[in-house]
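Task: sequence design from structure.
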């Protein structure tokens, strides 16, 4: 028994000696694992801290179809040029902030060190809003302030809505947060706001509501001008807008317009085909080297018109000072019932005319509008034509005359604008801003982001091509493939 006990003790000691290095190995490995976990956790914490300090434009990706949480190039340009501190107050109870607006405001703060965003809870600070306005301010409205200037951006102005007569309820159709906020920043940082005069007294068209809203959003004051009673264009005019007169201006009005332009004035002119003779109005344009061709322009190239109507023109957008952003963005422009713009040879060398919109070489101006055919006939004027031009002339003393002329006022029509998903609106506002913007004034008008289904604009050529593909080519391929499979199986 003693011998057996001795053997057991020796065996136990032997096993203990063998286990000790093994336990030390496990302990060492466990320590390494614990250390690695601690290091990994520390790295993750540090990375999260670093990422948390990064601007949201690097950490958040806007995957919404309408880019609701993003700011565009025009806004970035305004923010990069800021040299004054701007504070944007979001008026909302804590926890009830509109997420879309809050995320968008953060983009502004990230883009410029001069922009600061603060949340103001009306429950905590009940008298804050009254320091800026006596009007009732709804929840999630904004107050944009810079020094002594401020502007209230109402929540209802950022979300556009229309009545759905099927349900008799309002449906949200657009988000204008970026447009309203950028407009407010430009307003509070600019002391001298431009004035836009619109000529009246000759059957001019009334400004389309969409374009009028864009002009007001660009912080331009709109005033009417009757040259017969005023006698001249006021000195505070940043630009004069003439929207398709249906009767001619008088000789005195022509003289007043020429005096204004020859002294470095700026004008945006729209015209439409009319059977009336507008000789004085035409003389103003002819003084700057352009005139409207007889008739209405038809396109012979089906890649340059839409809706199966050769007078619903889809012109080429050329890059100029008045259209570079529209041209680069690839928007279609639609211009129905347009006249061709012809350039005159006998014009001063100081006058330069750039084409903004042009037709194809196959375009022609139809002079007999009672004709039963849409095809080109004898007497029609051969193209190509310009449909929009930018005219400039240096007149000395640092002054420069500028005229932008479009030969169809339908380019400002809301229904036409919808057909090209806002392309017309973008071009018109860009053209106007190019003349009014100066070093002292900042004008920017960003269109609302539609939450509705956008129209797909294609030329008549593209429509025909896809019609052939979907109706003929693709079904034909399946029919041939099916016949081949059937024939092989039958033969087998």
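Answer:
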């Amino acid at each position: 028994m003693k011998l057996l006990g001795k053997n057991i003790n020796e065996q136990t000691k032997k096993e203990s000696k063998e286990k000790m290095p093994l336990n030390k190995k496990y302990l060492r490995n466990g320590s390494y694992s614990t250390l690695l976990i601690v290091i990994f956790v520390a790295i993750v914490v540090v990375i999260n801290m670093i990422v948390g300090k990064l601007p949201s434009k690097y950490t958040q990706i806007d995957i919404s179809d309408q880019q609701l949480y993003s700011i565009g190039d025009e806004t970035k340009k305004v923010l990069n040029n800021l040299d004054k501190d701007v504070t944007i107050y979001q008026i909302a109870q804590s926890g009830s902030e509109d997420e879309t607006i809050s995320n968008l405001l953060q983009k502004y703060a990230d883009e410029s060190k001069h922009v600061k965003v603060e949340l103001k809870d009306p429950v905590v600070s009940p008298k804050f809003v009254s320091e800026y306005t006596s009007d009732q301010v709804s929840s999630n409205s904004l107050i944009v302030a810079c020094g002594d200037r401020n502007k209230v951006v109402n929540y209802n102005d950022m979300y556009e809505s229309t009545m759905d007569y099927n349900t008799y309820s309002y449906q949200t159709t657009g988000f204008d947060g970026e447009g309203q906020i950028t407009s407010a920043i430009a307003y509070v940082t600019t002391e001298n706001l431009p004035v836009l005069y619109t000529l009246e007294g000759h059957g001019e068209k009334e400004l389309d509501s969409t374009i009028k809203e864009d002009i007001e959003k660009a912080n331009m004051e709109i005033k009417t001008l009757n040259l017969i009673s005023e006698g001249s264009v006021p000195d505070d005019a940043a630009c004069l807008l003439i929207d398709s007169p249906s009767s001619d201006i008088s000789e005195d009005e022509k003289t007043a317009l020429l005096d204004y332009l020859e002294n470095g004035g700026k004008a945006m002119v729209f015209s439409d085909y009319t059977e009336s003779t507008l000789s004085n109005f035409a003389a103003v344009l002819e003084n700057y080297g352009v005139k409207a061709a007889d008739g209405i322009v038809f396109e012979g190239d089906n890649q340059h018109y839409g809706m199966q109507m050769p007078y619903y023109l889809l012109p080429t957008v050329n890059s100029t000072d008045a259209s570079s952003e529209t041209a680069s963005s690839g928007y279609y422009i639609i211009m129905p019932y347009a006249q061709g713009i012809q350039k005159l040879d006998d014009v001063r060398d100081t006058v330069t005319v750039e084409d903004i919109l042009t037709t194809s070489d196959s375009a022609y101006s139809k002079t007999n509008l009672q004709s039963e055919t849409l095809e080109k006939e004898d007497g029609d004027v051969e193209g190509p034509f310009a449909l929009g031009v930018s005219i400039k002339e240096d007149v000395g003393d640092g002054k420069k005359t500028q005229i932008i002329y479009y030969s169809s006022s339908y380019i400002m029509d809301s229904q036409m604008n919808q057909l090209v998903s806002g392309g017309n609106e973008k071009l018109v506002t860009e053209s106007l801003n190019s003349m009014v913007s100066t070093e002292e004034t900042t004008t920017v008008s960003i269109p609302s982001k539609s939450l509705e289904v956008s129209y797909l604009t294609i030329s008549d050529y593209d429509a025909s091509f896809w019609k052939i593909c979907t109706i003929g080519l693709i079904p034909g391929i399946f029919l041939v493939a099916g016949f081949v499979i059937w024939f092989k199986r039958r033969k087998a």
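The chain has a mean pLDDT of 84.
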